């Protein structure tokens, strides 16, 4: 066993850990690992990531279900709508240059991270936590089809899109959105893989090894999910996606533009923090200071 293969398998455990804890991030890690460490071509890495994440999600979802963190109706309908979109996206992705797919992959990661860090707008019942409930059929079908198309196209299992769709748009608690997203991810990943296999051949030896290691990580991660505060989970997810998206975007950019892109992402992060500080009353940056100032000084 070569050092490269050992490194790939070790990093694959982190893929599963990410899926188990965050309900996403599997493909965000799998695609860069297979491209930059294992040496896969972009399209082969995207197709392999769909298999790895699909199998790992299917295994991990049972631990979340035992903890009551899966909305089966929402997940199955969302996943069914997403499978159609994912299959079409997989067919289209096989005919698009790999570099363009990776750039699109990275741009969506950065945009999604900003949405997750910004958080969900509060409704009139200020301070009320999100309620665990099944989402309306029309919303589930529409969101599922759109997310599925993107999933199949860029090879992302969909967690970094499904979790925000369920948590930010649907209003589910973050822990329930994570568990439910795994059902959706598994269904859409296999549909997207079917589309890619019409034009792409996989190295099944490495793919199955990565899958086995990721399953080990997912079983450990699912035991941690639900024990982590929702706000901390959402912020960790957002920052994680931002870092990985920036890395992929810089790697795919021409050498003379890499510093410009890095500076642009840094400026976007600073601007987001500024908007949060000055215009969002519930901004955690400002609230920390506010909480300190409200503590009475000792006599």
From TrEMBL:
Membrane-traversing stretches: 6-38, 45-65, 71-93, 100-117, 145-169, 176-198, 204-224, 236-253, 259-280
Major place of residence: membrane
Alphabetized UniProt keyword annotations: Cell membrane, Membrane, Transmembrane, Transmembrane helix
Top-level lineage group: Bacteria
Cellular compartment(s): Cell membrane; Membrane
Membrane-related topology note: Multi-pass membrane protein
Protein family per UniProt: Belongs to the 4-toluene sulfonate uptake permease (TSUP) (TC 2.A.102) family.
Name listed for the protein in its UniProt record: Probable membrane transporter protein
Organism, as annotated: Pseudarthrobacter polychromogenes
